[in-house]
Amino acid sequence: MAVKITKDMNIMDIVQTCPESVEVFKKYGLGCIGCAAAHFENLEAGAKVHGFDVDAMVDDINALIAD
Length: 67
Prior knowledge:
The protein is mainly α and 67 residues long. It has one domain. 51% of the residues lie in helices and 0% in strands. It has 4 helices and no strands. The longest helix is centred in the last third of the chain and has 13 residues, at 54-66.
């Protein structure tokens, strides 16, 4: 069964589950991987702090991992 990423998922959980998601984080300019907040912050909170559209990010990550 394929994994589906949601905006309420923890950032590090996303990266550990789908390492290719790092490409999307880089595309949006998020350095979340090295940030301490990534261990407890969900994707929606991280996107809000940085001013990004979380729904677009989720769509991009899911499209990437679907390939």
